[in-house]
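Subject: sequence -> structure tokens, single chain

Hey, anyone have a minute? Need the predicted structure for the following. Not urgent.
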Amino acid sequence: MSNIDDIFNDIKSFGSVGIKKSDLKKKHSDVNFDDQLNQLAGSDKICISKKGTYVYCWEKQSYLEYLLSSDIKFKFLYYSITGIQSKLDNYSDSLFKYVEKIDCELSDMKGSFERFEEKINNLKPDSLLTTSTSSSLSIEDFKSRFDSAIGEKSQSIGWVELSVIKEDICESCNITSNEFYTLVSELIELYPENYELSSGGYEGVVLRGIIHGFVRCIA
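Reply:
Had a minute. Here:
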């Protein structure tokens, strides 16, 4: 063991009481004491300070214990700082966990968007075309079927519910309910002199915000 290690171990053995520098120097008078003591202080292993009228030496942790037990102001300041540090550490942990959670949620959202994009890209153009042009029924063919249905389903005064006609035409022409009412609207617009609509019913052609669910031929 080197001389500097001997000096350090002697200082450490005295704990928070510390050892007088003069007593320590007497014990290690055969070495370059001051240089080695300064080396220990420079490497932050020991603390040198006055205690009363004498200069004492402490191992670093022991010096902290000495101050906490002998200096009330230092003790208060020390625990205030460590308390603040603890709160900051807890806040940092909470913030890190929150950021981590947000990062996971963003990753999940990114994955969802990627899967959605993949599904869109995998859609076949033919299926999109079929969806947008599923009704190949011309307006003239529709008019013929529409007029026939009115004649078959109408009451004595000529009125008939559009929903009743819709069921037959949608089934026979393989069109949807929306397509049916779109064609009805086009037909009424093209031949206003041939048809009359009446409000009422639960479904029909919407005019000026009112559902017109009854129709009759007037020409």
